[in-house]
Amino acid sequence: MPRHLALLLLIGLFMAAIFGWHEVSQPGWFPLQEMRVSGLIHTPVAQATEAVGVEKGSNLLGVNPRTVQVRLESLPWVRSVHVKRQFPSILYIRVVEKVAVGMVREEDRLFLVDEYGVSIKPLEKGDPLMLPIIVSAPGEEKAAQVVWLINLLAKHAWLQQRISEAVGAPGGRWTLYTKQGVKLLLSNRTDQELDLLKRLQDQYAILDRKIRQVELRVPGRAMVRFAL
Predict the structure, then answer these.
(1) pLDDT tens, position by position, for the chain (228 residues)?
(2) Which of 19, 82, 100, 216 fits a disulfide with 193 by CB distance 3.0 to 4.6 angstroms?
(3) How far is it, in rounded angstroms, from Cα 59 to Cα 89?
(4) Where in the chain is the domain with CATH 3.10.20.310?
(5) Rounded CA separation 95/148 (Å)
(6) How far is 25 from 23, CA to CA, in rounded Å?
(7) Per the CATH hierarchy, to which homologous superfamily does domain 100-226 belong?
(8) In what order do the strands lie in the sheet with 133-135?
(9) How far is Cα 111 from Cα 174, in angstroms, rounded to an integer?
């Protein structure tokens, strides 16, 4: 085939491809009929739908999955997003949300933090409230302190739901406050001290009694201060 004919054929195919794409990209081709979103727990559906920014009836070919992913991942609760177009008419969106494990104070406001110690958003009405407030020790990295404490409480699950606040101090010491108002004083031997506290709780239900404070910083001992 002469070279100029081959070139003309290639140009013709290229123009046909452009014309074909232009045609199928017009409204009426592959109209979006359904958007299926899963994984939303704390993110309102209306907020997620607005972030997607795609209207029903839009051409599914014109929906960029990466753009939808980026928009959704900008929402405070969203950690990751997977977007899939199923032709001719369905858009699938799978969301994985962050998990709030505690709260920290920043400039006189409470912020929810995730399991990595990273702030999710300011605490607002309707957000989870049954989470411990974590105050890191002066000079310590806040995220690292949050992660350490959450891992500690996960190892002592019997105590986890009882704690309302945890305050760090230099040297790896912590003061924990239960939801019943009992103050627990811990040194940097936290695992051993909480094991002792567990034995006392099993035998005497110590945290369910009218006490103000349990001093656990003396090795092998627990000193109790009763409420007046």
Answers:
(1) 565 555 545 554 444 444 443 444 445 578 999 999 999 999 999 999 999 999 888 899 989 999 999 999 999 999 999 999 999 999 999 999 999 999 998 888 999 999 999 999 999 988 887 899 999 998 889 999 999 999 999 999 999 999 999 999 999 999 999 999 999 999 999 999 999 999 999 999 999 999 999 999 999 999 999 887
(2) 216
(3) 8
(4) 3-97
(5) 27
(6) 5
(7) Cell division protein FtsQ/DivIB (3.40.50.11690)
(8) 119-122, 109-114, 100-106, 133-135, 163-169, 173-178, 183-186, 211-215, 223-226
(9) 20
Enter the CATH code of domain 3-97.
3.10.20.310
Please tell me the pTM assigned to this model. 0.79
Return residue ranges of the chain for CATH 3.40.50.11690: 100-226
Helix 190-204 / helix 142-155 crossing angle, nearest 10 deg: 40
> How far apart are alpha carbons 169 and 109 in whole angstroms?
21
Place of tokens 């929402």: 75
* CA separation for the pair 218, 199 (Å, rounded): 16
